[in-house]
């Protein structure tokens, strides 16, 4: 803008795009944190060393995905306000996981045994360790899934490996199960829908700092409506949350970041 490359009339649009991105990053980060805890509790197939390296490279090349996962990792660590470099040097410990699980309502506040929590970390760690590093987290959570509009052939190519049809269906079922579990973490009253106020309370319980404006922006992103009152249809349900999770708010590193519309 100061250099004259961004017209003044585009400023409002740019600010709107940035507001959307901040809200989406926090919402998607919170859902990724819930999904990660679901995987820790229920287990997930551990990638081979070759797959681990490939996944890590793919995440690093997708700035949107990496930012969302970093937000999730901060929540799990209880370090939402920490600098990125500090968080990336830390690991999720058994005590930290116990705190995160309790905040999400996945374990009674009195807690599970230390052995159970350590087993959760071993299941999730790419190397079977009793702690989860930033690299572990990016590897296991992996690159963003293919966009819904992609053809089956494009989806297989983007995953970086060929799969049989049966395996494709199994993977979709697992994703749907995680999505339901994540929404259940947020839907504390079990109404099947969240107002902006309820969404803010749920995210803050997980450790995410969310303003009223950000919560309303999250609802708008999901409902597709400018209205944020529940009476006017401004609510977030499981389907609209899934739709937000599939959207890409930042392009990959090899594509330009267009804030001008």
Describe the protein in words:
The protein is mainly α and 261 residues long. The chain is 59% helix and 3% strand. It has 12 helices and 4 strands. A two-stranded antiparallel ribbon has the order 1-2. Strands 3-4 form a two-stranded antiparallel ribbon. The longest helix has 32 residues, at 11-42. Mean pLDDT is 79; it is low at 148-156 and 158-174.
Q: How would you concisely characterize the structure shown here?
A:
Helices cover 59% and strands 3% of the residues.
Mean pLDDT across all amino acids: 79
Q: Please indicate the percent range of residues in DSSP E strands (runs of 2 or more).
A: under 5%
Note the total helix count.
12
Structural class: mainly alpha
Which strands sit side by side, in order, in the main sheet? 1-2
Bin the helical content. 55-70%
Described by strand count, sense and barrel closure, the largest sheet is: 2 strands, antiparallel
Shape category = globular
Q: Unreliable stretches, pLDDT < 50, 5 or more residues?
A: 148-156, 158-174
* Cα distance spanning the termini: 15 Å
The Cα radius of gyration reads 19 Å
* Total beta-strand segments: 4
Sketch the topology as an H/E string, one letter per element.
HHHHEHHEHHHEHHEH
């Amino acid at each position: 803008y100061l250099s004259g490359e961004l017209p003044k009339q585009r400023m409002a649009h740019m600010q709107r795009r940035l507001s959307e991105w901040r809200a989406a990053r926090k919402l998607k980060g919170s859902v990724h944190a819930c999904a990660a805890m679901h995987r820790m509790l229920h287990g997930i197939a551990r990638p081979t060393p070759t797959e681990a390296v490939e996944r890590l490279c793919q995440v690093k090349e997708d700035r949107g995905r990496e930012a969302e996962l970093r937000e999730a990792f901060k929540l799990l660590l209880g370090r939402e306000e920490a600098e990125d470099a500090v968080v990336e040097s830390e690991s999720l410990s058994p005590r930290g996981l116990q705190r995160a699980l309790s905040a999400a309502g996945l374990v009674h506040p009195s807690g599970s045994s230390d052995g159970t929590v350590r087993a959760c970390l071993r299941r999730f760690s790419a190397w079977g360790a009793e702690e989860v590093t930033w690299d572990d987290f990016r590897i296991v959570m992996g690159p963003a899934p293919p966009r819904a509009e992609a053809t089956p052939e494009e989806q297989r190519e983007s995953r970086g490996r060929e799969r049989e049809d049966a395996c494709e269906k199994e993977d979709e079922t697992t994703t749907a199960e995680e999505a339901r579990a994540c929404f259940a973490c947020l839907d504390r009253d079990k109404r099947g829908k969240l107002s902006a106020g309820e969404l803010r309370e749920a995210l803050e319980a997980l450790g995410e700092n969310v303003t009223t404006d950000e919560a309303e922006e999250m609802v708008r992103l999901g409902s597709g409506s400018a209205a944020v009152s529940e009476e006017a249809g401004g609510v977030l349900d499981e389907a609209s949350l899934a739709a937000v999770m599939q959207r890409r708010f930042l392009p990959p590193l090899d594509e330009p970041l267009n804030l001008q519309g």
